[in-house]
Amino acid sequence: MLEASPLDDGWHLRHGGKPLPAVVPGCVHTDLLAAGVIPDPFLGEGENEVAWVGRREWTYERELPAVPSGHEQTDLVFDGLDTVAEITLNGQLLGKVRNMHRSYRFDVTGLEGPLAVGFVSAYAEAEAVRGKVGDRPAAYSEPYQYLRKMACSFGWDWGPTLVTAGIWRPVRLERWSTARLARVRPLVRVEEGVGIVELRVEVERTRVEAGLTLEARVAGRSVRAEVTGTSSVVRVEVPDAELWWPRGYGGQPLYNVELTLHHGSAPLDVWRRRVGFRSVGLDTSADAHGTGFTLVVNGERLFARGVNWIPDDVFPSRVTRERYRKRLRQAADAGVDLVRVWGGGIYESEDFYDACDELGLLVWQDFPFACAAYPEEQPLRGEVEAEARENVVRLMPHPSLVLWNGNNENLWGFRDWKWEERLGGDSWGEGYYLGVLPRVVAELDPTRPYTAGSPWSGSWEHHPNDPAHGTHHSWEVWNRQDYAEYRCEVPRFVAEFGWQAPPAHATLRRALPGEELAADSPGMLHHQKAEDGNGKLERGLARHFIVPDGDFDRWHYLTQVNQARAVATGIEHWRSHWPVCAGTIVWQLNDCWPVTSWAAIDGDGREKPLYHELRRLYADRLLTFQVRRAELVLAAVNQSAEPWAGTLSLRRLSVEGEVIGAASVELAVGARVVGEVRVPAELEPAGAKEFLVADADGLRAVRFPVPDRDIPYKEPQFEVAVAPGSVTVTAHTLVRDLLLQADRLGPKARADRGLVTLLPGERVTIGVEGWETPDAAAARAALYCQEPAR
After folding, report:
1. How far apart are CA 268 and CA 622, in angstroms?
2. Which of 342, 343, 347 has the alpha carbon at shortest distance from 394?
3. For residue 613, which of 572, 583, 568 has the smallest C-alpha distance?
């Protein structure tokens, strides 16, 4: 039987001629940080102090132990090396590698002694490749497109430049005899209620003449097949298979699959995975509105409630199974049902996809290409196909994976970012996105759809980012416009859009120790990576609020409110246009360090107000005021499987709390559809002193006809009561956008809700966990809301 022995311990990193203890999996930065050689690059401007690390060569060393006899072959297996390295044993070269996204296997049978993995600087490799293939344009100046490495380690508009090197995934010895399972490719589908697992198997042999058989077990059923040469196919049928569904549509039953390779009666190797039975499709048919882009799971057409995912740490080896599960649990709790793994990062670990399988989170997987023209010459072309083949097969068992996507913004960049004229006919990646990758997916994983890019209109007949065709990225709004402009278009699928806000106060205090916080303080500016990011924040704020002068706490609160408002404006509008618009994917769920960014969860894992707003926006049912054909309507979005019937209350109020007009309307909305109720003209608010409220089944929509800066808010008056685990606020006036910043109560404190608007006489109880010394005065000091102009 194949035996695997981890080789994660006993490593050293050579620095300045001396060995430092090394943690594997890990990277140079984390080892140097643990040894006290470098400062924490996340704190202050520490990033700048460690820039030298990415430009050095590094060597990891340990002894390869003598392997006991009893097996015919011993392999040294690296699940991930970052990125360009030579592996030597006893001074003899085992191999050279150049791809972070692949695994590697070396025959070390009968060998022992000093083992070394020497890493070349990623910068040096990138410059060497650029010199060979020629210059290519990119959105950023760093040379990330010249090697197969996590692009965002070279920095992004939300991330630091920390160019890593190291053994970033596990390493082990595998000892085996006769044969082993080299590759198992599971094709899982459903036909007329029967679940089918078709295992296409390739074996590696030490003895060609040995007779081999395979036995597959699924759901109590067992099937055997002979191995001819080095390949075989085993098909198992599961009658009345329970379907796997995305969260909110059904359960997530998972079936254990066990495949055993036998020589006679002796087992040689075992492959175990979990699968889920479901069908998935992508409807891109043309209609009266253009070209659609609708995910279909088990025949059910979905409005995808999505978030974009970036690596959760700039040092991905630090992301544990528990951290993956926590972050993805946060996504699911916010109503998210789709996570897009963005193309400037990595193919995530099995822990990520396992959690998505269990939580019912659909996964849209980008191939790792982002915001650059990628050369198609060697040595890159062969690496691209090899990594695609390996990772497509590796991730195939996961029912959560529903879409392969060729790249992020590169087709758009070619057309709009002056790449075409700069390239002058040189290769730039089109051959990957429209050739290599769809061919690999069609050959290896025909059970899932592939799209060439995001955004992508489906063909060059339309602009790549045409909102009427395929996927659309809406960035003009954040970069140049007011977020009210989201309402001017109804894209078929919004795969990226977002608005920035700073992280939580406690996160800033940890990241910028000793600094007097201000929007433009040195640390704040260093932890703002977007081009003119603060300028865009200020202009976006000024369109809606009176920008506070010198009051950082107020600025911090209002920018977080503005982020939530901006995203809400887009999602409410687009969800109300289902089924023309079939999904939104917010940029972004998470951060990889403490930074001002578009994230809903900051780099320390704290939830911004946007996170809690997503819980409202992505709930099965949503009330939102919209304008249709110059008339004000209340759109009732019902994404649940049950019809929505009830009474809708409409109230026109003054900012003093007086009810000016009211009406009750019977609400009747079918399952998975959007209903509209015309707002009577006499209830439409007139001028700055009035607003409109709609309530139904505990849900609320509020419409103020003018920006906050023009509303004559009264001084908010409310009472605060504290009990173990909660803070209750009772309003005596209109209290708009009330927010308890729980992290101001203590760094571990967390509130269970974000922004809430209370009418006079209403109260809200906010659950608080992690608050060690509850105190009403402290709670009041941590409460923020809209106030009259000063």
Report:
1. 55
2. 347
3. 568
Helix count and strand count (H, E) for the chain: 17, 44
Structure tokens at 768: 């608080």
Could you give the CA distance from residue 5 to residue 26 in angstroms, rounded to a whole number? 18
Helix (H) or strand (E) holding 392: helix 380-395
Catalytic position from the list 387, 409, 430, 572: 409
Rounded-to-10 torsion of CA 420, 423, 425, 429: -80
**Rounded distance between C-alpha atoms, residue 499 and residue 597, angstroms:** 8
Q: Name the residue among 588, 523, 591 with its Cα closest to residue 552.
A: 523
Spatial neighbors of 188 by CB under 8 A, at least 6 apart, are: 195, 196, 197, 198, 275, 276, 277, 396, 397, 399, 447
pLDDT in the model for residue 70: 87
Q: Which residues pair with 693 in a beta bridge?
A: 651, 702
**CB-based contact 468:455 (threshold 8 Å):** no
Contact 488, 444 (CB under 8 A): no
**pLDDT one-digit tens code per residue, 376-415:** 999 999 999 999 999 999 999 999 999 999 999 999 999 9
How many C-beta atoms lie closer than 10 Å to residue 261's C-beta?
A: 26
Condensed to tens digits (0 to 9), the pLDDT of residues 700-735 reads 999 999 999 999 999 999 999 999 999 999 999 999
Name the amino acid, one letter, at 607. Answer: E
**Per-residue model confidence (pLDDT) at position 741:** 98
Residue 409 catalytic?
Answer: yes
789 confidence band (pLDDT: 50, 70, 90): confident
Reduce the secondary structure of 101-145 to three states and give it as a string.
CCCEEEECCCCCEEEEEEECCHHHHHHHHHHHHCCCCECCCCCHH
Q: Please state, in angstroms and rounded to a whole number, the distance separating the CA atoms of residues 567 and 498.
A: 6
| Contact call for residues 281 and 296 (beta carbons, < 8 A) | yes
